[in-house]
Amino acid sequence: MPESTILIVDDEPAIRDMVGITLDLAGFSSLSAANALEAHISIIDHKPDLVLLDWMLPGGSGIELARRLRRDAVTANIPIIMLTAKASEDNKVQGLSEGVDDYVTKPFSPRELVARIKTVLRRANGNQKGKVLRVFDLQLDPTSHRISIEETPVEMGPTEFRLLKFFLLNQEKVFSRDHIQDAVWGANVYLEERTIDVHIRRLRKALSDIEGAAIDYSRLIQTVRGAGYRFSVRPS
Amino acid sequence: MPESTILIVDDEPAIRDMVGITLDLAGFSSLSAANALEAHISIIDHKPDLVLLDWMLPGGSGIELARRLRRDAVTANIPIIMLTAKASEDNKVQGLSEGVDDYVTKPFSPRELVARIKTVLRRANGNQKGKVLRVFDLQLDPTSHRISIEETPVEMGPTEFRLLKFFLLNQEKVFSRDHIQDAVWGANVYLEERTIDVHIRRLRKALSDIEGAAIDYSRLIQTVRGAGYRFSVRPS
DNA sequence: GTTCTTTGTCACGGAAATGTAATATACTGC
DNA sequence: GCAGTATATTACATTTCCGTGACAAAGAAC
User: Fold this and answer.
1) What is the pLDDT of residues A126-157, one digit of tens each?
2) Domain range for residue A107?
3) Going by C-beta distance under 8 Å and a sequence separation of 6 or more, which residues neighbour residue B78?
């Protein structure tokens, strides 16, 4: 699963660092910005999956930034979590209700922060896992997390599942091992080159171990010597 | 019926306390919030069954909060009762268009408040409940809060009941532990990962401890390694 | 109060999955 | 044919993930 990118907007470097480390440990990649302007540029440049926005930015521009993000169609769907001081103390907070997705009150535990981020991300992305992918009588259903060939369930490990999904979504194209690694394992993972081959083999084996299938689906995963692999319905 | 949770949103502590006591006596459990932000956090976290919302929150954000709750799919179905100082036609018209379910004008009698709450809750519940969930000879009756297999009552704890209900309503889909936690425990509750497993086990155990059942219903709760759990009538 | 139930956490063991190295096989250009 | 390179396959150690029993705290029933 490609990790989500989170932008931290806070004027205090200590908080940015602390939150950044927390997010890294939780498997997110993080960006940071010290003020609303920096934040806006970063959002446009990197399109983070979520913005952690300090309410009390100098100049009170936190809420303005949130409003601006919501108004612009390009950024309107990026979830925002507000970092606020204690809720009960703050009366200025009343005017908000802009499309903020959740609030976290300082001080917060890393654990709580991560939990809320995951919840918001799930709510934002989650409900569309995608349609059933089909090739002949091979089916991959992302929702139920099942693979079948002619109605017969196919067993494979999680990595092979992601690999097959990647191929089904990107047919008829050759991908280098590096590219496959980025897409299936994530960007900052180091693997031996041969490791990809092994997983390709496991996937092929899983697809070919089907009793009485009309087609040998393992043949759809084609080796392109010197280039990588390709999923194709056309014989090589 | 398990007791409903009501969130009281009012800036005056005296009113919050008074209403809180009234609700407790009537068999509800209550939460309270002093402003719109607190209220919103509380709603996201605890998913109350109904919100009692003061119309005249400082900053006039009561109506904004109502509007916001209606807009977000997660909170759109939570009934809202407005507390207003005076029943002016303007309020009613505007409020109704925001999807407010009822009005109570201050000062109100505890008795009247409770009566209206019950009415609104009944109306809200009536829409979704009543349907018995069935899979083969496994039945879950939300109304009577009972579960049976081939007419034999099945014993389980409240958490397992909610878990099973969730599964019955969402069959053939994989859910991560995080997702299950959100749906069954509430959005921002912190549990150890293994805790879900333990409850899954308890549910499976409850379903499998049935004498003379034609099917082992615990098998319908399937483990999807690396992904989560799935309730399915198809063998894994 | 006592007792029973429910609940969340922990620790341990086993099973599946993963990544790597070693070896075997296939392909390419000569 | 050969040498050199790329890929396939196998085997294995390690890691990750899940199931399970035990336990203590908190609450409900008595």
Assistant:
1) 666 778 999 999 999 999 999 999 989 999 99
2) 5-126
3) B43, B47, B48, B49, B50, B51, B69
